[in-house]
Amino acid sequence: MQKESVVSSRPDRELRKEVITPGDFNVVPYEDSRCSVKITDITCKNASGPCEIEPESYIFSDGFDGNVLIGDSDCFLDKDFELILQQMCCGETCVATMVYRNGEGVFVKEISCKIELCDVTEEQLISDWGMDRLYEGAVHHKTRGVELVKEKRIVDAFRRFNKSLKMLIATEPLDPETVSEKTVNEMMDLKVKLYNNLAHCQLQFNEYSAALDLVNKTLKLDPQNDKALYRRCLAYSGLNMYEEAWKDIQHVLTLDPENKAAQQKANTLKPIIEKINNDYANVIKKMFV
User: Fold this and answer.
1) pTM of structure
2) Which end of the chain is more exposed for a tag (fewer CB within 10 A), N or C?
């Protein structure tokens, strides 16, 4: 057994591994590699003793099938596990340790296990992917992002949407000689949805300026997009730009008069706008007294 080495370290987390059996140094996983692994001897403890592993983890769940696609995890534990895999060689067996601390540096939890990297399927580097594969990847990450939003895992969803957008942008510029109009429209629709979804994520953390930038990109592509207009209204409201917010919510209600969320937002904004108008009228009166 070799000396334990640090895979990654930061104030709130340290990843270590100790090689038991070396592997083939010529075959190492990287982004989008498919890995077949065996995980045994799993322990999890905190300051009080044995404890449960986060239920969001797929790799440490009973349903894990032994296959890991590097870069496709959402739970922080699984992403850390991927980092360890990327420091292993095909055929290697090691003991991995993941130590977590809180913001004050106090110990929170330690997970250890034995990992055997049985096989690595080498994939093309993403920079070598063609348009079809990039688009397929973009759709995959967008779909997973929507699932994570439904689970209220907004940070993980944002990461998926962002990755999807990067893949989609990597397909550009599209060659009109080889790409059908139908495909172009589908890719444009996906981009609109991604900007909208990213804006939704930003709004959940009151990042109004970032959300405003994203919905403006959406509306540049689709000026009548009611979801984008509604989210821009929310962003404007968060930035105290109430007149702009009022204009957008009225636009939404013109497009969809039965939109309950828009009706509720309009009712919230109405007294604010009335006060702004009254205050302005009083100022004008005083100017001409």
Assistant:
1) 0.79
2) C
Tens-place pLDDT, residues 247-280: 999 999 999 999 999 999 999 999 998 887 786 5
Q: What is the CA radius of gyration of the chain?
A: 25
Determine the Cα–Cα distance for residues 175 and 101; give it in Å rounded to an integer. Answer: 50
**CA angle, 274 then 278 then 279, to 5°:** 120
Phi, psi at 222, each rounded to 5°: -145, 85
Two structure tokens written together for 145? 């992002």
Q: Determine the average pLDDT of the residues in 160-188.
A: 90
| Cα–Cα nearest to 30, from 120, 92, 137 | 120
Three-class SS of residue 32?
Answer: coil
Distance, in Å, from the CA atom of 33 to the CA atom of 138, rounded to the nearest integer, reads 17
> Which residues are CB-contacts of 234 (< 8 A; sequence separation ≥ 6)?
203, 208, 211, 245, 265
**What is the separation of C-alpha 256 from the centre of its chain, rounded to a whole number of angstroms?**
29
What amino acid occupies position 116?
Answer: E
Distance CA 169, CA 138 (A): 9
The CA-CA-CA angle for residues 239, 241, 244, to 5°, reads 130
The residue among 186, 138, 129 whose CA lies nearest residue 162 is 138
Q: In a 3-state reduction of DSSP, which class is residue 230?
A: helix
Q: Compute the distance between CA of residue 61 and CA of residue 65 in angstroms, rounded to an integer.
A: 9
Q: How many CB atoms lie within 10 A of CB 186?
A: 13
Tell me if 170 sits within 8 A of 136, measured CB to CB: no
